[in-house]
């Protein structure tokens, strides 16, 4: 988590304001090092973060807060070929990706 990029916590505030994350099953496309994941995941039922770069996913796992309750999973994948069944998620987060 990099507080320098968003010291006012605007990104998670916007997510909470515009997305109903409570008890939602969320997929985060382009999760990278989990910079955003750990800032909103506690609001959800579960999060599956995908990214094509394994090293970035390892960083996300390594940064997992201790005693973190919601289910958070990471998978090496691309958005063009998701390894999940249809209707697995209630919503998607796609930020800072291209």
How do you describe this structure in short?
With 98 residues, this protein is of the alpha/beta class. It has 3 helices and 4 strands; from the N terminus they run H-E-H-E-H-E-E.
Model description:
By secondary structure, the chain is α/β, with parallel strands linked by helices. The protein has one domain: Vaccinia Virus protein VP39 (Rossmann fold, 3-Layer(aba) Sandwich). The chain has a 4-stranded parallel sheet, covered by helices on one side. The longest helix is centred in the first third of the chain and has 9 residues. The protein is globular, with a radius of gyration of 13 Å. The model has no long low-confidence stretch (mean pLDDT 88).
| Structural class estimated from helices and strands | alpha/beta
> What's the CATH class, please?
Alpha Beta
CATH-wise, what's the superfamily? Vaccinia Virus protein VP39
Question: In one word, what is the shape?
Answer: globular
Domain module count = 1
- Counting DSSP E segments of at least 2 residues, the number of strands comes to 4
In helices, the fraction of residues equals 10-25%
CATH fold naming: Rossmann fold
Average pLDDT metric = 88
Low-confidence segments, given as residue ranges, are none
Strand order of the largest sheet: 3-2-1-4
- Share in β-strands: 15-25%
Largest sheet features: 4 strands, parallel
SSE succession: HEHEHEE
């Amino acid at each position: 988590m990099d507080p320098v990029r968003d010291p006012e916590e605007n990104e998670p505030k916007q997510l909470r304001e515009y997305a109903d994350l409570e008890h939602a099953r969320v997929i985060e496309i382009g999760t990278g090092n989990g910079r955003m994941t750990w800032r909103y995941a506690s609001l959800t039922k579960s999060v599956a973060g995908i990214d094509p770069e394994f090293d970035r996913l390892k960083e996300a796992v390594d940064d997992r807060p201790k005693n973190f309750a919601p289910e958070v999973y990471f998978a090496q994948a691309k958005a063009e070929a998701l390894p999940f069944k249809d209707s697995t998620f209630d919503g998607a987060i796609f930020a800072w990706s291209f």
